[in-house]
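Exercise 7 asks you to align residues with tokens for two separate proteins.
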Amino acid sequence: MLERELTVSNRLGLHARATAKLVQLLSGFRANATLVAKGREVNAKSIMGVMLLAAGQGTPVTVRVQGEDEADAMAAVVDLFERRFDEDS
């Protein structure tokens, strides 16, 4: 299992569009993915689960990935967070 703490840095946080990008990205991997924020742990492949986190800008989020392609999945998630979900110019 891989675990990494990231910070939501895009201006709008994990709103519907950003959440959809994250879930769509993770759906291409076999590994299971979990997000932990504000004392809640959710399935990162579930739009409703991620939306329930209500993670705004600046929220620390722990990403946990476990499975056969976990390294690739984690690298993709880290890249998406670092690109601020392709929203901020």
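Second protein for Exercise 7:
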Amino acid sequence: MSFAAIDAWWWPYLFILLAGWLATDCWRYLGVYLGDRLSEDADILVFIRAVATALVAAVIANLIIFPAGALAATPLALRIAAAIASFLAYLAAGKRVFVGILAGEAALLGGIFLFG
């Protein structure tokens, strides 16, 4: 069975739904099943957290350095400054993610209005 196997308007949506569900939910169920058996300090979980954190950092860096859409029209220095302001606000607010997001957005929009 492939993406082009059925020529119906609903098939691409069903294919994406099933492929997305099968690719993610099996790991979720396995995590729930094994979750009670592993300690939070287990080496494998520390490794998995480190890999997940590195992947998120890589996606953020990719969005800052190689943006798409309207963000691509902003200078690189502004995007980096907004990311730094966001991180500093996150730390200053006691590691509140929402505050960091708002500070980053404010810095980016302020820079666009001042320099753009």
